[in-house]
Amino acid sequence: xxxxxxxxxxxxxxxCAAAGAFAAVSAQEESPSDAAVSAPAKSQWDGVYSSDQANxxxxxxxxxxxxxxxxxxxGGEMAPELAGGDFAAHWNNQTLDQLFDRIxxxxxxxVPGSLSRQQTADILAYMLRxxxxxAGATDLxxxxxxxxxxxxLATDPKAE
Length: 160
Ligand code: HEC
Known about the structure:
single chain, Cytochrome Bc1 Complex, Chain D, domain 2, 2 strands, binds heme C
């Protein structure tokens, strides 16, 4: 119990330091756990992959995914689309590490787990580009910790 209070206090102090006097007031009203949960700042609309990476992803996709999900990611007889409104609605507000893990552990459906982390990240970059998310200067990370900081948002919040 003492430890919990200490952690709560530390979180409160951090929130105050980060957000200033206003947060100092509201942190007292919120429970410490609310104060600790902060929304990821980035989404796929902020240029989180490189153009080269999406090009690499396109070849990996063509080899391992096209047969079921179609050359244009529009889906096939059995497999769902991987770009477009239904897909976006399905993944809206999740983080990229969740989508990454879904691909890496369950796809390709006939040989799940056969893709490397690099191949998975490259395919994900290609999928994002196919959903009109812009390219940026650096590659999308292959590490879950980094991917967890990027949200998948159905629409670009800056365009709303
Ligand atoms: C043998 C056919 C087949 C292949 C090859 C295949 N998939 Fe799939 N995929 C499916 C089916 C069927 C589903 C839906 C059922 C399920 O999730 O198991 C699916 C679902 C998915 C989903 C979830 C879609 C959603 O809306 O949540 C993703 C993401 C995905 N596949 C990505 C890939 C990627 C990337 C590749 C290539 C590395 C790939 N798949 C290869 C058949 C396939």
